[in-house]
Amino acid sequence: MSRVEVPFQPDFRFRAAPPLSLYIHFPWCVQKCPYCDFNSHELKDALPQEDYVAALLRDLEQELPRIWGRRVGSIFLGGGTPSLFDPAQLERLLSGIRALLQLAPEAEITLEANPGTLAGPGEFNRFAEYRDTGINRVSLGVQSFDERMLQRLGRIHGSADAHAAIELLQCHDFDNFNLDLMHGLPGQSEAQALRDLAIAMDYQPPHLSWYQLTIEPNTAFHVKPPSLPDEDLVEAIQQRGGRLLQGHAYDHYEVSAWARPGRECRHNLNYWRFGDYLGIGAGAHDKITDVPQQRITRRWKQKHPARYLKTAGTPEAIGGERVLTRQDAAFEFMLNALRLNDGVETALFSERTGLPIRFIQPRLKDAVARGWLEADSARLRPTADGRRFLNDLVGLFLPDDHAA
Fold first, then answer.
1. Which of 41, 68, 189, 371 is the most buried (most CB within 10 A)?
2. Which CATH number describes the domain made up of 326-404?
3. 20-270 belongs to which homologous superfamily?
């Protein structure tokens, strides 16, 4: 009997790789905030700036085969507190990246910054120096302009530092920046929350991240929870704050992101649209689509800075790796896309997951029937109720082995 060769049938069918971004993690802070569950470590000794930049470049070199020939559209320097690093070291890092990668001509390059590292004596020119490295966007972690709220959050900066840092940004013509604000803080009233928002808008930032404080596991606040405003008060803050932002021409384009037209964060939009991103640095995560192999892989690096510094550029620096199943890819796409208030084009699901839209059709019908989703051949968009019950909406797309 002759043997019939059955052609290989991949689980995915990608025609092209999605847009690519680069995330760089800086794991050190002056002190750990009690609400923070990111991979950040309180700085005990001298900051190993030169060694860490060298480690990042070794890390990037090791990862190049996964993204060879692809153009990078955005870079995000996050943390931790990247603004602890001297501009000269960031110049060295970005120059090394440009030598290894193809950057888009108008690549968005964002630096996360803490006002407590920027507004002191001798720091007047720091933003100009950052801009000279090629950084063209700054995300400033203000959190609040209220001195008492900042103390309760364990921030290292005061209200005056926040004002000074924003004024320095504007003085040096940084016209693309984000102010990071939180509400629902310990002991915060509605008037205090809205006052923070009003002060921020007085500076006319192109972008505002405005989100509720939540208590996360493995944080000091989780061990000893503070007294937070009740749900009704938080809802009132969000409703009034939203109207205030809309009245000042800010578009609520994502769950916690507001922007003037054309000033949306391109790097984060790539996440929410299920694009690819390479991650370098201690604890950095990534997601890479391999078109020839027809698979999506998530990889993460060693979390502890000392371990990362020792192993960067070697296989030992890889903390773990996971190849996504079809169910994983479908869920993760919807988890991200449904954060966008205007949703995404329906065709993007197949383009970014390599799966036909019929793969999730029964779940889409369920979401539509509940009044949480608008879904047709053109667009997938959460309704007002879908945005309100976003966790429940996303839960409909959980893989069966994760569903409750």
1. 41
2. 1.10.10.920
3. Aldolase class I (3.20.20.70)
Separation of alpha carbons 101 and 95, rounded Å: 10
| Region of residue 150 (left: phi > 0; alpha: psi -120 to 50; beta: else) | alpha
Domains 20-270 and 326-404 equal at CATH topology level: no
Cα–Cα distance, 336 to 393 (Å, whole number): 12
Of 216, 126, 374, which Cα lies nearest the Cα of 393? 374
The residue with tokens 């020939």 is: 69
Claim: this prediction has a pTM higher than 0.90:
yes
Distance CA 110, CA 154 (A): 24
What residue spans define the domains of the chain? 20-270, 326-404
